[in-house]
Amino acid sequence: MKHYPLFLLHLCLGLFFVILSGSCGHTGEHEKPNIVFIMMDDLGWTDVSYMGSAYYETPHINRLAGQGMVFTNAYANAANCAPTRACFLSGQYSPRHGVYTVVNPARGRSEDRRLIPHPNSQEISLDKITIAEAIQTEGYVSAAIGKWHVGHDPAQQGFSTSIDREKMGYKGHFNEAGKYLTDRLTDEAIRFISQNKDRPFFLYLAHHAVHTPIQAKQEMIEKYGKKEKDGCHRHATYAAMIESMDESVGRIESTLRELGLSENTLLIFFSDNGGHGTYTCQDPLRGGKGMFYEGGIRVPMFVNWPGRIQAGTTCDLPVISTDFYPTFLELAGAMPPPDYPLDGKSLVPLLEGADKLDREAIFWHFPAYLQSYRGMQDDSRDSIFRTRPVSVIRKGDWKLLLFFEEWVLDGGREHIAANSSVELYNLRKDSGEERDLSMQEIQKRNELLDDLLEWQQSVNAPIPEEPNPDYILKP
Fold it and tell me: Do both 223 and 156 map to the same domain?
């Protein structure tokens, strides 16, 4: 645990004045709520049946989503796992912590990359204040169970309990004894809940499913092998992994109910990025994991809190994983860390029925390369990379993508009509991003482009500008 004397002083003073004023948000008359955050790995937007799949079966998830609030425009902070996790834990956009991708930012062949990508960090530095540390002062005990993937041990960043598959002898999804990883992580999560039922807790359950290797229980694989396929949802082993994931969520909820904790527990279901294009797809969305089209960054999300969130509700406003940090702060009654920028907005107003947030836009920044997968559905701009270096803004119904190779090397704004650096989509009318309107909606394009460039400056987003000497121009 790190110690912040000034931080603690601010927290104590803030709490003192809140008590004096008689307004404690959600933590005055009510006991501090428990927080259970379940993050799946590579689970796509339509990879749960309440979002439309007729092949994948998720009855427990469907029930909990129906009893809570479904978010139809929920976004991960990146199109692959490590940066989304870093953003969730730190509450900050990628340019503030430097985690942009998984390990190597120079994916693919050097001769195919026009630019030298920006260096990538593989860890959240210890000067960052994680959400676990921020709510620790309010009496919360926290556990990180499952995939961490952002460097330092969770114990150094506010988590009293941390368990990952390596500690349990796993490499894939089965250990030598044949025990399934999703079940084992759920066992550990239930143990943590049971041991801490009499104090406020934050459980970060980060499953390795449904990430590769695609492995599942044989009896479930056989079940889906006999089932009628549903478009691009047709992979029996992948479907079996999803069913085990659903069973995990059901077991967590059942434990909370049996311990009498349900009505004082906020349960959130989320994914770190879109689905893997080799095994599933996100129709009608374009693309999947590794792309900054909708299929790569829009993810399934619901929030369940019996008695506090109206059942059967839907929120269509764009939200993003950096929003969870201020949400948890508000629910815990904790003050934001001083001199520590947070890039999200609390979702509490939406959970209480509001129809808007005080926010103009959300952003993404990826100064790196991700190569294509063999056998994947090709929804990218080219067949070589899932994405090249790019920045993205979503503002209202509009989304703009700015690709740096053309922007930097082919004339920037002065030659925007010819260099194909900008793509513009109206997501309300075109969720599949099939119609690039950058040359028709000039005023809207320029508005979003100006906002994006201003945001880049505000967070010191690094722009890759150095030409790659190994690049070979293709005929």
Answer: yes
Kindly report the CA angle at 363 between 362 and 369, in degrees rounded to 5?
155
Looking at the structure of the chain, the number of domains it has is 2
The dihedrals phi and psi of 207, each to the nearest 5 degrees, come to: -65, 150
Other Cβ atoms closer than 10 A to 213: 10
CB atoms under 10 Å from CB of 121, counted, come to: 18
User: Taking the CA of residue 187 as centre, how many other CA atoms within 13 Å lie in the half-sphere pointing to its CB?
Assistant: 9
Domain around 271: 31-357
Q: Following DSSP, what letter does each residue of 345-384 receive, concatenated?
A: ---HHHHTT-S--S-S-EEEEE-SBEEPPTT----SSSSS
Question: b or e along 141-160 (b: 16 or more beta carbons within 10 Å of the residue's beta carbon)?
Answer: bbbbbbbbbbbeebeebbbb
456 in Cβ contact with 94 (< 8 Å): no
Contact 287, 77 (CB under 8 A): no
Q: What tens digit of pLDDT does each residue of 417-453 get? A: 888 999 999 999 999 999 999 999 999 999 999 999 9
Query: Model pTM?
Result: 0.92
| Cα dihedral across residues 89, 95, 96, 97: positive or negative | positive
Distance CA 72, CA 54 (A): 18
CB of 402 within 8 A of CB of 391? yes
Q: What is the CATH classification number for the domain harbouring 222?
A: 3.40.720.10
User: Which amino acid does the sequence have at 117?
Assistant: P
